[in-house]
Amino acid sequence: MPQFRLDQKIPPQENCFTLLGPEAGHALRVLRYKAGDKILCLDPAGTKIEGLIEEIGEDLIKGSILKRWPFKEPSIKINLYASILKTQAWEEVLEKGTEIGVAAFMPVLTDYSAITLKKEDYPRKMERWEKVILSAVKQSERNSIPALNDPRGLDEILSQDLKGEVSLFAWEKLRHKQDRKFDLESVFTNLNFQPLTINLWIGPEGGFSEKEVDLFLRKNVKPFSLGEHILRAETAAVVACAQVEYQAKRALLLKSPLG
């Protein structure tokens, strides 16, 4: 069943919901929802509700809450720091990343970025990117909406302290190296089994520049290999997220008291 985004957080004691704007319009005019139907909605805090539609209007749905599922913090959170790509490829990163559970998208301007953005372009671009993310949230029935940060330069981001226990960057020059320390399995060997935040960096077509790699290493962002083949940037982002999540969850499971 499709789910729709509410504009405001629903307090735990609230027993009614209101869906407004384009979301309500889509439900009413495209999907033909009517009074008496049940509907799934997601609020900004990640609480999912099943509601009973009792009143409809122009871009307006009101009703009572039948069930609710509070947001459960995941054991693994991935902040994806991805170099901005050309439109179709970038939107694919946002869409597929949302589907597989990325917690936050951090658009990065790198030395080899395929496009350049002016700050006056940010609002228009961000609005479009948020629509792509929301569509993917609906399609995948996620219980949370990934955060989306404004684009920033790599130097600016790394000049601040990254929030996360592990920071990694995919480096294509490692693809022929046999050293196991560059395998993701080895990277996660010494992790605790507590909830974990991972900062994952993916470069553009052409990868990161030597200057950027040097900066990563000085900031203790660890390199890892995605295998023997060169991947397109949008493919690398999805593959890296999936591999990192798998290896991190595997390591946490093995180190848990029940592992």
Instruction: Name the CATH class of the largest domain.
Output: Alpha Beta
CATH topology of the largest domain: Alpha/beta knot
Return the string of H and E elements. Answer: EEHEEEEHEHEEHEHEHEH
Helix/sheet category: alpha/beta
> How much strand?
25-35%
Provide a descriptive summary of the structure in words.
- The chain is of the alpha/beta class and 259 residues long.
- It folds into two domains: 3-69, Ribosomal Protein L25, Chain P (Beta Barrel); 76-255, SPOUT methyltransferase, trefoil knot domain (Alpha/beta knot, 3-Layer(aba) Sandwich).
- It is built from seven helices and twelve strands.
- The strands form two sheets. Strands 6, 7, 8, 9, 10, 11 and 12 form a seven-stranded parallel sheet that branches. A five-stranded mixed sheet has the order 1-3-4-5-2.
- The chain is globular, with a radius of gyration of 21 Å.
- It starts with a strand and ends with a helix.
In brief:
With 259 residues, the protein is of the alpha/beta class. It contains 7 helices and 12 strands.
Can you lay out the helices and strands and say which pair or pack?
Elements (H helix, E strand, L loop, with lengths): L2 E3 L10 E5 H10 L7 E5 L5 E10 L2 E10 L6 E8 L3 H13 L4 E6 L12 H19 L6 E2 L3 E2 H5 L7 E5 L13 H4 L8 E7 L7 H9 L3 E3 L8 H23 L4
Parallel strand pairs: 1-3, 6-7, 6-11, 7-8, 7-9, 10-11, 10-12
Antiparallel strand pairs: 2-5, 3-4, 4-5
Main attributes of the structure:
259 residues, alpha/beta, Ribosomal Protein L25, Chain P, Alpha/beta knot, five-stranded mixed β-sheet, 32% helix, globular
